[in-house]
Amino acid sequence: MAQHGIKEHSHGGNIPIQTRSERQRSTSVSDFAEVSKLDEIWRYLPAEKLRGLGDLVMGEQSESGVELNLAEGISARWVDSTDAAVGTGGLPEDRVAAAAWTNASKTLLIEVPAELECAEPSFITIRGEGPEAKALHLVIRVGHHARATIVLDHVGVGVLGENVELVLDAQAQLNLVTIQEWEAGSSHISAHFAKLGRDSSLKHTVVSFGGDLVRVTPSVELSSPGAEVNMYGVYLADTGNFFEHRPFVDHIAENCVSNVAYKGALQGRGAHTVWVGDVLIRESATGTSTYELNRNLLLTDGARADSVPNLEIETGKIEGAGHASASGRFDDEQLFYLQARGINETAAKKLVVRGFLSEVIQKIEIPAIEERLVKIIEAELEKVGA
For the SUF system FeS cluster assembly SufBD core domain, which residue ranges apply (predicted)? Predict the structure, then answer.
């Protein structure tokens, strides 16, 4: 069987897929090859940190390991993974997502009824259950003209393969925040699939601050006119952390908008982050407006940030499209400006890093979460006196 992501060449060799949309989608693990660095989608990943997440068989996250604190009017129930709601947001594009899909016999279905406007955020806390690989599946459905904020909070020590489906009806609004604050010894690979209805709006924020391996791959399908997605990410990697984020926006319908902005800081020898951003504007997606951005700040020697923006455009009838990425060290002019005003070097560096990351953190618009993340940043920077 040909390797996933690779097509057989007429001369007998292998060539990579030419467009992001050509990737295979399936819930069957056997449809995907073993995880290998020869496959572009796994080329950066340290396979020794998978800890069984690519295996055919893994355990299932227990219901007791998922704590719910939902706003009034939002319902939650566990359903069989054969339920009609499962798969409406999207399907796996890699082996780990397929393995998590098939090993999760139950799915947590969160429903926000039509017309409901929630002023308070809802929290779903997922606690790690030790060093054995577990699978978890969530579906979040937001009804017509409803509005909600939901936080997925991952904590403790765990090895988790996770699929999250987001389905927004017409004119629905969802602010989803997923936080990875795992302890050392944890591995987490999460695939997000979002399908947006007409004139709906999704704000999707990924926060990665802990875990040996964190890989989040959010995929958004803009298949209804007037839909908008804003995808944000913030991460702080230290020694022993490998964080990978691969957002994908698929512009299918006309007059849709997407903005992607991820910012990260790295410190400590061996800290490694990967950002691969894909945007596809199909021929049918006239009137599209899109932009993607990734910025990385390297605080110490020995840290590595890979950043790859990709933009495919199949029509010239768009409002605008662009991308940018950069990785670098402290801005000497910023430090000089602060030190010239009596701030010592250590405090000045903290202010620069905090300001750099806070630009994304403020997009979350949940004061308690923003305060918590700022405290984590301060504590991490104390480790190296930055």
Answer: 132-356
| Mean residue pLDDT across the chain | 92
CB 289 within 8 A of CB 320: yes
pTM: 0.92
Q: Is 25 exposed, middle or buried (0-12, 13-18, 19+ CB in 10 A)?
A: middle
Q: DSSP for 307-348?
A: EEEEEEES-S--SEEEEEEEEE---HHHHHHHHTTT--HHHH
Separation CA 296–CA 312 (nearest Å) = 23
Give the DSSP letter string of 123-171. EEEEE---SSEEEEEEEEEE-TT-EEEEEEEEEES-EEEEEEEEEE-TT
Measured over the CA atoms of residue 351, residue 357, residue 358 and residue 359, the dihedral's sign is positive
- Rounded to the nearest 10 degrees, how much is the dihedral formed by the CA atoms of 139, 140, 142, 147? -170
Chain segment 102-127, per-residue pLDDT in tens: 999 999 999 999 999 999 999 999 99
